Amino acid sequence: TAPLFALVLAVLYLKEKFEWQSLLAIVIAMAGIVLITRGQVWSADHIWGMTLALISGISYGVIIVLNKKLVEIVDVWSIILYHFGLSALILSPFLFQASPTGSDWGLIGLMAGGVYLGGSLLYLHGIKYVKGQHAGIIGYVEIIFVLILGFLFFGEIPTLFIAIGGSMIIFSGIWMMRRESIRKDDKKIKA
After folding, report:
1. pLDDT at 79 over 90
2. Is 68 in contact with 127 (CB distance < 8 Å)?
3. Is-above-0.85 flag for pTM?
4. Nearest in space to 21 (alpha carbons), one of 129, 128, 132, 133
């Protein structure tokens, strides 16, 4: 749902022109997600989980749009410093509830330094070059990497519906990247 919220917020806050293709790409990608999750047994826990996922989607949509605005006016390293610093400050009380061992600290360091820092750097540098409404759609490709890593690390075999749904997500992401490329080429020609 984050790309949908990012689309709405990019149009309202960033004043980007609404593109029906963005909405269609979101619908295609969300249909792919529905196919991937097909056959799930739903319970009250799932409803609570879906509610939290919706709130997360709204939050992530806001983050996409705010980061898009921030990278235009603030250095990427400063943004990361504030992300890390505020997160550490807010989450520090929970540190005392856990008792990580030496190897746990290694994994925590790998996650923070490698995955989060590296991913944040790439994301913030990349978001400079795409519209806010496209950034969320391209972000759906993350689901594909989760499926690939699930196969590699846990031996989870994708079903036919997962393959079809994943293809729909990949298609929508490639479509938006291609639109960005064409848009940039048009700007160069006009300049």
Report:
1. yes
2. yes
3. no
4. 133
d(CA 140, CA 184): 22
H helix intervals, the chain: 2-12, 20-36, 44-73, 76-95, 102-109, 117-127, 132-139, 141-154, 160-190
Q: Which residues are CB-neighbours of 25 under 8 A, at least 6 positions away?
A: 137, 172, 173, 175, 176
Instruction: Write down the residue that tokens 């064409």 correspond to.
Output: 182
CA nearest neighbour of 4 among 20, 21, 27 = 27
Count of CA atoms in the C-beta half-sphere (13 A) of 16: 20
6, 30, 32, 140, 159 from 36: Cα distances, Å:
22, 10, 6, 13, 8
Residues listed for the chain = 191
Whole-number Å distance between alpha carbons of 124 and 110 = 20
Strongest mean pLDDT among 50-59, 134-143, 175-184: 50-59
